[in-house]
Amino acid sequence: MSPLVLGVGACLAGWIGLYALLCYTNGSCGYEWNCRLVTLFHGILAVCVTAYIGYIDGLWPFTYPGTKNTPLQITAMVISLGYFIFDMAWCVYFRTEGLVMLAHHTMSILGILLILWLGESGIESCAVLFGSEITNPLLQTRWFLKHSGRYDSFLGDAVDVLFVLLFVFMRIFVGGAMLYCELISPRPKFIIKFGGVAMYALSWVFMVDISRFTYRKSQLKYQRWMNRRRMAEVNGQDLKRD
């Protein structure tokens, strides 16, 4: 396990170093802005690496769950483990996230540690990383738009719609199919299956929050549209009187 410990330590130091560099060169934007840049970079990197693992290099996770970890799968998990430890510590220190996100990070850290220790089910872990991180760039883009005053625009609406659609498709439908294949396969250990159920349940917790946000935003958009329509009718009547 010592090479893995060194690898995780090196990746953790790398993420901390990247964050420190961003704070030094981009300090005027604030700590959270720079942390989210690190998060964005990790999301893009994780999606690219795990997509290569799932579609080109490795076995198909829906067909071969519970197989031995490959060196590339281990590398992907070590990189993400270093990031999750960094981001978990940052979120706890700055108190920016709620219990659901902290639970997600905790489960991600424990899940990757378990799979590295068992030496198997790396292909499922990489598939979960891909499905979890593919919506991350849109989530960070939404935050950057909101904090730069550009969220209330067509671009902000497009980002929200794409995020919701991608989340539902990847985390609920594809994630559900992935969990089904995991549960019916005799290869994965029970604790891995239990972890899969827990992660999928957490996705539904996120889904409830997203549904509430979607409902509130659609109601707000409808009210704004009705107000504009009333104003247009009033202005039209005034012009007729004149």
UniProtKB/TrEMBL annotation:
The keyword Coiled coil does not apply. InterPro entries: TLC-dom, TLCD5. GO terms for cellular component: membrane. The chain crosses the membrane at residues 6-25, 37-60, 72-92, 99-119, 161-183, 190-208. PROSITE patterns: TLC. This is TLC domain containing 5a. It is found in: Membrane. Residues 28-219 form the TLC domain. It is a multi-pass membrane protein. The lineage of its organism: Eukaryota, Metazoa, Chordata, Craniata, Vertebrata. Keywords: Membrane, Transmembrane, Transmembrane helix.
